[in-house]
Prior knowledge:
The protein is α/β, with parallel strands linked by helices. The chain is built from eleven helices and eight strands. A hairpin with an 8-residue loop joins strand 7 and strand 8.
Amino acid sequence: MKRLVSLSVASLFLLVAACSAGDSMSSVGGMESAVEEESAQPETSSVEVVEECDPLVAHPKGAFEFDPQVDESLPESWRTEFPVILATLQAVAPISPCIHDVREDPAKSPMKIYAWSSAVDSPFEDERPGMEGASVSGDGTDTWMVLEIEANDFASGSLHIYSVVAHEYWHVYQRGAWTAQGLSYPDWMWEGGAKVLEELYASEHYGQSEFDRNLFPVAATALANPSDFGLYAFKGGAVGGEYDRNYNTSAFMLLALAKELQERQGLTEVESLGLVLKAPAPRGSETPFLDVFGMSLEDFYASLAQYPAVASGEDWFEGTVVDASAVMPSKGLTLGEILQPTA
Length: 343
Ligand SMILES: [Zn+2]
């Protein structure tokens, strides 16, 4: 059953915006100022009724669906594999139907997915001007997925042509699980989660991943101030910045958190990975990290000092790196077991 509850809209929107401003949403003009205006309202001024969504209950709008637009600039092999990846992800990690109720930066169902090869200009320029790279993007009225697949990656045999689908899909999952529940997490959990998810997908389905190379390089200098990873580089933090190449350091932090949970709370590897990826805090919690993991963010950041800095050992990367081997997931794990619903 859905219930109607009175919530402070001002505070709810603040939480929602704090999450969804992540990733490529920075390109959405005017959103930040709109948020500030909203937060300036007295919290008691609004008594608007907001529906409380239970992710376990069928939504009147049905399941959240996707509407892929796959351009023929992509090789047939990719066009064949893509729907398999999407269906696999939807089976192991269905998007919470509560995403239907996200008011700030809403996502309509079915969500458009625009996919094309970087060998050509965007074939969707008329419908969605200016798309490039890979992201979940929005304009304040709707949200869509951008998959410009790197032509060079086909030539080099990089699995990123496929794993990027899992990465961006996970950002939609996070919106349904976190944003729609009014939960705000540090940005390293958004990108570290998407990176870990994509590598777990590659490992399970293609037999190799960047875990095989211990996510090299995890720059040691980056971890001198782990709290910098609370924010994206474009917001003044470190996520996706110079010391977070391909989100390797954000992903390392997520895996280090899973390791802490195994050691402090006796969780299995599978349990701990499921917990750090899904982070299912109570709706509207203002301390979701503490609620889910039983430790404060500061406590966790301090634990990262246990990982020694070592020489890079690679000519192309100067400086010291963190030996991340101790936190790499075991081979042979499946997303099905990691993400299985907990009773
Ligand atoms: Zn991302």
